[in-house]
Amino acid sequence: MGVFKSYRELTKQAKEIQKNSPPVGKRMAMASERMAEAQEMMAAQTQAANLAATGIPATATINAVRQGSSMINFQPVLELDLIVLAPGRPPVPVTLAQVVPQVYLGKAQPGAQVAVKVDPADVNTVWIDWASPVAA
What we know:
Blueprint: H1 2-20, H2 24-54, E1 56-72, E2 75-85, E3 92-99, E4 113-119, E5 122-128
Antiparallel strand pairs: 1-2, 1-4, 2-3, 4-5
């Protein structure tokens, strides 16, 4: 008798969940949107890895910090407004979103200087090297 009672309760719970969840089409659209965001973030991480290896060392001053829209591996994504000072180039304002490891969150403060790597072809493409000290 207990098995049938449990089955009825589970069936009732499943119907309640179905009633309160969005339609299948909307769930698919939401899933597609999250997938597009994930692909965008993966492309940004690939670009960052390339910059870490081939970028020109520079410094940047953080003007503003905002919480981003997501977290990756429990690490926050922050939106940062920077003034980038690359060798032989004028200062350039850059806004970027980057994963900031929690151990470096204290460095992500307005007015702080951070070491960056700049794309040689596009000074607006920047990767912050949180672990490196700022060159004097």
